[in-house]
């Protein structure tokens, strides 16, 4: 039996009492698996991820996520803060009080994991959208995060780069035993995940393997 990496029980949240977003939402993700979260616009997917990451507090319910967690935003320009690749990946390590050689090793390990070893001195502004997303993921790997939360990370990428990123995250999950929860609108991305959820009307209404969820979405939108 696998350990649970992410667990949510009866979560409720609303921006106002008149408009509840999550209405007793529950889910569980085993360690070392790649899951996706689908749902219509405004169904509360980003809100759920923000609660999982501690950016928002639920009104009620229980929430557990293995720590430290890494969060990858839709727009990488909202999270890359330093001028170069190496400085950005190292930035998240500041609070750990590591020695310089330890920081260098962590940065190299993380860049190697996303196939960007040797890119330390590259300026962030010169990277493509997909490369920036891989740097954001490298930041989480450098911090040795067991869990990655990704909020529509391919939304701003071209189709080829979208496929490369989702493939990369799948291979990180499988090779490093990480757990990832990936929010998406794109049904073709489901092919890469182990299982997926659908968030509707404030609750998880469906959970299952990718093909089953694809069929459900296609039938419900036909
Ligand atoms: N800061 C905020 N203040 C008030 N309402 C908000 C705020 N952020 C989001 N909302 C509302 O909460 C609801 C859920 O938003 P959320 O962004 O979680 O949905 P989503 O499923 O991620 O949507 P999308 O697929 O469009 O990204 C929406 O109705 C949204 O307008």
From TrEMBL:
<keyword id="KW-0067">ATP-binding</keyword>
<feature type="domain" description="ABC transporter">
    <location>
        <begin position="6"/>
        <end position="222"/>
    </location>
</feature>
<dbReference type="InterPro" id="IPR003593">
    <property type="entry name" value="AAA+_ATPase"/>
</dbReference>
<dbReference type="InterPro" id="IPR015856">
    <property type="entry name" value="ABC_transpr_CbiO/EcfA_su"/>
</dbReference>
<dbReference type="Pfam" id="PF00005">
    <property type="entry name" value="ABC_tran"/>
</dbReference>
<dbReference type="GO" id="GO:0016020">
    <property type="term" value="C:membrane"/>
</dbReference>
<protein>
    <submittedName>
        <fullName>Energy-coupling factor ABC transporter ATP-binding protein</fullName>
    </submittedName>
</protein>
<keyword id="KW-0813">Transport</keyword>
<dbReference type="GO" id="GO:0016887">
    <property type="term" value="F:ATP hydrolysis activity"/>
</dbReference>
<dbReference type="InterPro" id="IPR027417">
    <property type="entry name" value="P-loop_NTPase"/>
</dbReference>
<dbReference type="GO" id="GO:0005524">
    <property type="term" value="F:ATP binding"/>
</dbReference>
<dbReference type="GO" id="GO:0022857">
    <property type="term" value="F:transmembrane transporter activity"/>
</dbReference>
<keyword id="KW-0547">Nucleotide-binding</keyword>
<dbReference type="InterPro" id="IPR050334">
    <property type="entry name" value="Molybdenum_import_ModC"/>
</dbReference>
<dbReference type="InterPro" id="IPR017871">
    <property type="entry name" value="ABC_transporter-like_CS"/>
</dbReference>
<dbReference type="InterPro" id="IPR003439">
    <property type="entry name" value="ABC_transporter-like_ATP-bd"/>
</dbReference>
